[in-house]
Amino acid sequence: MLKLLIMSSIIIIKSLIDIIEIIEKSGIEPKDIIVGFDFDGTLNLPTIDATRPILKRAALRDGALELLDYLKLKEMRSVIITAAYGAVDQIPITLGQMGIVFESSIFYNSFPNNSKTKFGLKYEQTRFKFGDVDMNIRQCYGIVSAESMYDKQISMEYILQRYNLNPKLIIYIDDGVVNVVTMYHHFTHKDVPICVAYFPHSKSHEEPNHEECLKEILHIQNEST
Questions:
Q1: Is residue 188 in some structural domain?
Q2: Could you tell me if residue 202 is inside a domain?
């Protein structure tokens, strides 16, 4: 059983289906919630192709289809925040390979922009200035990446400001502990309610600073109980 506190929190999930329970127990209208995903390792998990071992194919992680269908049904704004700055407009292709038609997905409908051209999808690049931040952001509908790649909180800030959003709750899911801790601290410092979900897999422990950040996550959880 998941426990979502009124205040901001970090939780550890075993399936993306757990996010549905978080949303429904929050008591907040779907229109007032934004759901953000990391991509590689969070929505998808690369696996070795047995027929061509040199190549990797992407497979959706547990509960991904169920959660994406739920978000689409509820018409909830959802965004992929990726570190793949150079491949923002390639992620729709990867989604298609995993059985998700991008142009009918929640990511396409949540954040319209000028990415569609007669030659296909192409990212839109914008210079984003926010506090001490001054960097390029690339966006292809609901797929966003900051020039610094791993500053996921900057990408979320860009979405909030570009679309003039003031959500009552942000939910963010990532398989990387550093991103989890960074996103949590950024928005709690601003008093913006956020639930950050850490969704580990068998390789998550190989991330730099994993042990240090995991201890911080457990410390934050203990302080919230």
A1: yes
A2: yes
123 SS3 class: coil
Strands (E), 113-185: 116-117, 120-121, 124-130, 133-140, 143-146, 169-174
121 vs 63, residue with greater confidence: 63
Residue showing tokens 């200035």: 129
Q: Is 14 exposed, middle or buried (0-12, 13-18, 19+ CB in 10 A)?
A: exposed
* Residue-wise pLDDT tens digits, 65-96: 999 999 999 999 999 999 999 889 899 999 99
Q: Are 49 and 97 in contact (CB under 8 A)?
A: no
Write out the residue range of the structural domain in which residue 134 sits. Answer: 9-224
Torsion region of 81: left, alpha or beta (phi above 0 gives left; psi -120 to 50 gives alpha)? beta
The answer to whether residue 196 scores a pLDDT higher than 80 is yes
The CA–CA distances, whole Å, from 87 to 107, 146, 157, 161 equal: 16, 12, 20, 23
Q: What is the C-alpha to C-alpha distance for residues 201 and 16, in angstroms, rounded to an integer?
A: 12
Domain of residue 61, CATH code = 3.40.50
